[in-house]
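User: Sequence for Xylan 1,4-beta-xylosidase below. Tokens please.
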Amino acid sequence: MTARPPTRETVTVTNPVLPGFHPDPSILRVGTDYYLATSTFQWYPGVAIYHSRDLVHWRLAARPLDRLTQLDMRGNADSGGIWAPCLSHDGEQFHLIYTDVKSWGINEVFKDSHNYLTTAPDIDGPWSDPVYMNSSGFDPSLFHDEDGKKWFLNMVWDHRPGRNPFAGIVLQEYSPAEQRLVGPREIIFTGTDLKVTEGPHVYRKDGWYYLLTAEGGTSWEHAVTLARSRRLHGPYEVHPQNPLITALDAPHLPIQKSGHASLTDTPDGQWIMAHLCGRPLTTHGECPLGRETALQALKWPEGDWPTLAQGGHHPAEHPPLPALPPHPWPDVPARDDFSGPQLRPEWMTLRAPPEVLGVSLAEGGGLRLRGAESLMSRHRVSLVGRRLQSLHARLRTSLDFAPEDFQQMAGLSAYYDSRNWVYLRVSHDESAGRSLNITSCENGLYREHLPQDVSTGDGPLHLEVQYDGPTFRFRHSTDGETWQAIGEPFSAGLLSDEHCGGLSFTGTFLALTCQDLSGRGQTATFHWAEYTEH
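Assistant: Structure tokens for Xylan 1,4-beta-xylosidase:
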């Protein structure tokens, strides 16, 4: 279709525009198409790229890191893996910079963060095998200057005692011909008093180089800082009204944790900010949907500093954005019969591709999971999950599973990471035969919530997890019509960054999973899954 020229009219959108675990947005315009890449951490394939033509409607367009030659996260720490990708375009091809964080923990002094570049002629690929860049820190980006040179930036991690671990933003030239970084490394910005300086992006406008960074940490103090210089190498002066956006001084706002941003423009020169945010259940409470992506419009007079279109520095829940020609996408069907040639893109696995984890599509339809390691493993978990994107949502499924002993399990999980999950599992009990129980892991503490298993008999079994605002609970059925609650409701906040260790970075997933701790590889077949919001 041919897009109409943009106008100066506005349209009101509701934030977040990408709800549920879509952090660290990197936004980009190519012609009249907008692309937005987000972090995926330990979830596979790596990086989620969304596509829009009107900034209102978004579709999942690409999952570029989908093979082991690009990304192998087996053994990676929870909340390690893909941090803060940067998507750019140099007029000929797409460039995707990403970090694979191998070790990560609040009390771990080292980060082992490896930075790579992959390229593609089109957003749907094919994406190249990675080019290794460096391992000096995380949150890398690539800036294409007007003279054709390419510059690589990242924050530098300083592990030495008594030093600021966020040691500043480093700049180094990248040579496409040599496929490596060349020339001197230079710290061009050490941040402001907000500290925790990371997430650099450079933009050139009106003869200025603008350096956008995230500061304050990724929780309630999160903020966006802007600095500028006439020279790429600095020195940089900070926005006189810094921070550009934060919710630190407004804990009552529904949109919190605002930070880690990137910018793009419209064809007629209007500017948009994409930024990370969170929606707590209570003031500075838990955010079970994880860190999400919001948009804000900017006012950016020529030669001057930008400000939020609504004024001030607080994120708007309903901001005005440029009114581009509407372009909705077809709805994604709620029900998945697993009948295609591959998993639909909303489904993800842990740390490795499906075929490595015993996950396959059955001939004629259905999802087959070969039992592997426990949900506490960081290596080989047979699990397929999708993001929870609303606190009023439900996932239902139907499965066949014939466990022979208690070490074989399959079912439906609300999953955060290897130390935090709740699991309606089917297993075998010596007295009850095939039976149900609810198990959980809360910050590493394992529990079984029913005093004894509930017998299910043989045949297909239907399972459900339903979120109803601040709580969720499980149900089961033998015919898919009459549903019976099992166990008590759980707090939705149980599976959140705030509850799961304090510096965790993902969000709640609803997952189909199978374990066989005996090593015999018992298989569960899930005939369909249906995700709905209400």
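Confidence is low (pLDDT under 50) at residues 1-6.
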